[in-house]
Amino acid sequence: MAVGRLKYPSVLASIYRPQALLKLVTDGISSEFLNLLSTSGLTSTLPRNTTVHEAFEAGFDRLFSEYRNEYIYKNIIATNVFLGRHLINSSSMLPEFRIGKSKIDVAIFNGTSTGYEIKSELDSLDRLSDQFKDYLLFFDKMYVVTHSNHLKALERVLPHRVGLMLLKDKGSLSVVREAVSNAENTDPSVIFDSLRMGEYKSIIKKEYGEIPNVPNTLIFKECKKLFTQMAPTKAHSHAVTALRQRSLKKALVQDFKWVPKSLIFTWTVSNLKESDRLTLSHTFNQALHS
Fold first, then answer.
1. Which residues in 16-52 are b (16+ Cβ under 10 Å) and which e?
2. Which of 148, 187, 249, 275 is paired with 3 by a 20 to 30 Å CA distance?
3. Which of the two residues, 97 and 269, has the higher pLDDT score?
4. What is the C-alpha to C-alpha distance for residues 287 and 178, in angstroms, rounded to an integer?
C-alpha cells in the first residue's frame, strides 16, 4: 500500500529540537511525544513494535522527502562535515552563533573557522546582504548550503569569497563553489564581541602576559582595546583556538555509535549530562507502544 504524505510535517520536525530531547529524558515515552508522532501522520506508517530509535530515523527520512526544513540541513552538516571530516575531540560545532547583528546557522571551529548558512527550499533569500557583511568580518571560510531551486540566484548575488554547497537528493553535500580564505579580512572588534569573558581574558593573558589591572566594570573595554590592536589573522587564530575548547567530551563521542543518526546535530549541541545520556540510551530501545 502506498504511503501518503505527512499530515503536519512541521509537527514532526519539532521532535528533533533540543527541548524535545530533554522532555524525552524527563518524561520518557509520554502521551505528548506519542501525540506528536500521531498528529504528524507518521505513526500510521510505522510497523508494530517500532522503537523510539527507529521512529526518529523514519521521521527524518520522511522529512527529507517531504519537508526539508532547516534541521534536515543542520543534521546533514553535522554527520557529513563535522563527524565526517574533522577530528571531533579537537573541534567544536556551535549552532546559532552570533556575529554582529546576525546569527550563523552552524559554525565549526577546527584548524580554522567555517560558517554554514542554510538556505533551504523553504527559505527566502532576504537579508543575505546584511548577513554576509557580518559573517565575512568573522569567518575564514563561509558556505551557503542550499537547494537546487536557489542555486542560480545565489551564484549571482553572493560575494566571490563565499562558497556554495548543494544538498543532493540522496542526502550528500556537493561543493559547487569552494570558499576563499578570508582570515585577513576579518575584524578583531567583531571577533572579540563573539567571545565569552573567560575566552577573551585567556587570549589577552597569552598575547600580552597579563590581564589589565582594572575594576571588573572596565575589563571588557580594556581587553577589547588590546584585542583590536592585533592583526586580523592573529586575532582570528586566537579566537579559533579558544572556540575549539567548546568541544565534545570524549564520553559523548562514544555515544555516536548508538544515537540515531537523525539526532546527531541535536545531540552534539544539547550539552546532555551523563545521566541524561544513559536514560536516553534505554529509551531509544523501547517500543513506542509496549
1. beeebbeebbeeebeeebeebbeebbbbeebeeebbb
2. 148
3. 97
4. 44
Grid cell in block for residue 238: 586566537
pLDDT score for 1: 39
What residue ranges do the domains of the chain occupy? 9-67+250-283, 92-183, 188-243
* Amino acid (1-letter code) at residue 117: E
Q: Which of 248, 240, 238, 203 is nearest to 110 (CA)?
A: 240
Contact 162, 143 (CB under 8 A): yes
Q: List, for residues 133-186, the tens digit of each pLDDT value.
A: 999 999 999 999 999 989 999 999 899 999 999 999 888 999 999 999 999 999
Asked whether the beta carbons of 40 and 11 are under 8 A apart, the reply is: yes
Could you tell me what percent of the chain has a pLDDT over 70?
96
Rounded Cα distance between 8 and 144, Å, is 28
CATH architecture of 92-183: 3-Layer(aba) Sandwich (3.40)
pLDDT at 2: 47
- In this structure, the number of other CB atoms found within 10 A of the CB of residue 175 comes to 11
When computed from its CA atoms, the radius of gyration of the chain, rounded to whole angstroms, is 21
What average pLDDT is seen over the chain?
A: 92
Q: Which residues of 215-238 are buried (b: 16+ CB within 10 A; e: fewer)?
A: eeeebeeebbebbeebebeebbbb
231-245 average pLDDT score: 96
**Mean pLDDT across the stretch 199-228?**
96
- pTM of the predicted structure, to 2 decimals: 0.92
Place of cell 586580523: 232
How far is Cα 194 from Cα 100, in angstroms, rounded to an integer? 8
DSSP alpha helix (H) spans, the chain: 9-13, 18-27, 31-40, 52-66, 70-77, 83-85, 128-135, 148-157, 188-193, 197-208, 216-227, 232-243, 250-255, 264-269, 274-283
